[in-house]
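Sequence design from tokenized structure. All designs in this work follow the same two-part layout: the structure record, then the generated sequence. An example of the structure record is given first.
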């Protein structure tokens, strides 16, 4: 399903992980396996462009706090106690949840055990972008060590697993990475041609403090340091000035819009209507389940579609098709996958089958299907999921992961943390 393209009925042929073709007539050629999705919807796999899978066990911890307090008093003290086992339990749970709700590609910004995350992604069959999140509130030696680790991660994993895994460099945010450290990271990114990802202008407080300290807005400051000269993706962008938005438009920077997290932390609402008017490349992310609290891209799509209509008092602010485009096709581009996020010949066979029969999606004439996908469907309507042509979810069951084990390990790992 592409932007502006109608819903189609037909037959999709998959070969060697790619979409070989989509036909209106039945294909008579012999097939290895035929999947009957009659009466169901086939949609592109979602691309979740911002999250922290390692934080998944903190779902429901530290509710009702603003970002600054939430990070300093809940997240960071808890995360300091995370072991490799904790992170494995958390990331496995996140991958399972994402897969079962139709996400086939995600970006993970985290600072612990990213090699293990890479292994888990490959085992699951999903696609993932690894970002070793760097917080620079430490000694110069530690900063250098974090950057070295990030570059190592790139050298080891970028484009591995037949291109399933990618790596970006990720300074956590301008308020945790002083300009000289930020500059070092940007230089390394340019030296190796690595894309950059960071949290940017998420809260009013951080922007005001940045202006107070440096006399300039954070995005303008990052631009001076060269952040937007290569491929760049920022998360949030809730408090960007008009000048900054125009700058990001000019630079072709991607913005991961994370509406549920922004609402839950009381950070505000990004001006997606204006971003659209300025032709900024917007994609969608959940952030972590500690600030969301689910990783269901259907929910993210619904919030993204509704809040901008409400805040702008304009029901045309963002359409259902705009949102689907952000959740799949633009996400694929933001994460530098050339052929993801579309059901089109030559694209990777990343798709989900969605059950249309629930009472919450009836009646369902053809012209309302896109509307239903954004305004009515939920992740639990996904029955089957494929990535790179391989089936990963069948009849709502994970094929490459042991769900019982994931559930047990998540509870156990949290219990251990609390002991
Ligand atoms: C060092 S990268 C991982 C780091 O990021 C924290 N985090 C999670 N969500 C957010 C957010 O919305 N803004 C800023 N930082 C966030 C997470 O807890 C990890 O410490
Ligand atoms: Zn985040």
């Amino acid at each position: 399903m592409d932007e502006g393209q109608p819903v189609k009925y037909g037959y999709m042929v998959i070969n060697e992980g790619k979409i070989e073709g989509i036909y209106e007539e039945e294909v008579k050629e012999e097939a290895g396996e035929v999947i009957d999705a009659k009466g169901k919807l086939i949609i592109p796999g979602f691309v979740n462009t911002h999250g922290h899978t390692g934080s998944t066990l903190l779902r429901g911890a530290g509710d009702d706090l603003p970002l600054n307090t939430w990070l300093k008093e809940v997240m960071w003290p808890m995360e300091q106690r995370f072991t490799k086992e904790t992170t494995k339990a958390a990331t496995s749970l996140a991958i399972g949840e994402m897969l079962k709700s139709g996400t086939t590609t995600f970006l993970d910004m985290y600072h612990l055990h990213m090699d293990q995350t890479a292994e888990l992604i490959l085992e699951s069959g999903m696609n993932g972008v690894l970002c070793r999140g760097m917080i620079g509130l430490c000694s110069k030696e530690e900063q250098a060590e974090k950057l070295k680790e990030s570059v190592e991660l790139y050298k080891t994993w970028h484009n591995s697993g037949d291109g399933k895994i990618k790596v970006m460099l990720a300074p956590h945010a301008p308020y945790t990475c002083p300009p000289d450290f930020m500059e070092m990271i940007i230089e390394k990114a340019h030296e190796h041609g690595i894309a950059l990802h960071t949290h940017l202008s998420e809260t009013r407080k951080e922007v005001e403090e940045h202006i107070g300290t440096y006399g300039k807005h954070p995005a303008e400051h990052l631009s001076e340091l060269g952040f937007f000269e290569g491929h760049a993706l920022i998360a949030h962008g809730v408090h960007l000035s008009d000048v900054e938005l125009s700058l990001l438009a000019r630079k072709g920077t991607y913005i991961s819009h994370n509406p549920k997290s922004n609402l839950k932390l009381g950070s505000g609402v990004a001006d997606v209507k204006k971003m659209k008017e300025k032709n900024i490349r917007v994609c969608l992310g959940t952030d972590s389940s500690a600030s969301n609290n689910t990783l269901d891209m259907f929910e993210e799509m619904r919030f993204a579609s509704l809040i901008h209509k409400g805040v702008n008092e304009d029901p045309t602010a963002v359409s259902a098709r705009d949102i689907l485009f952000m959740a799949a096709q633009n996400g694929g581009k933001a994460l530098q996958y050339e052929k993801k996020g579309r059901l089109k010949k030559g694209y990777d066979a990343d798709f989900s089958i969605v059950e249309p029969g629930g009472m919450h999606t009836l009646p369902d004439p053809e012209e309302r299907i896109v509307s239903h996908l954004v305004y009515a469907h939920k992740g639990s309507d996904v029955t089957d999921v494929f990535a790179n042509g391989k089936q990963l979810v069948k009849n709502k069951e994970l094929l490459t992961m042991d769900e019982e084990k994931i559930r047990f390990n998540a509870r156990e790992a949290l219990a251990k943390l609390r002991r």
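Residues 52, 55, 67, 71, 75-76, 79, 109-111, 133, 135, 172-173, 199, 202, 261, 287-288, 291 surround LTUXU72L (ligand 1) (CB under 6 Å). We note this feature because it recurs in several other targets discussed in the main text.
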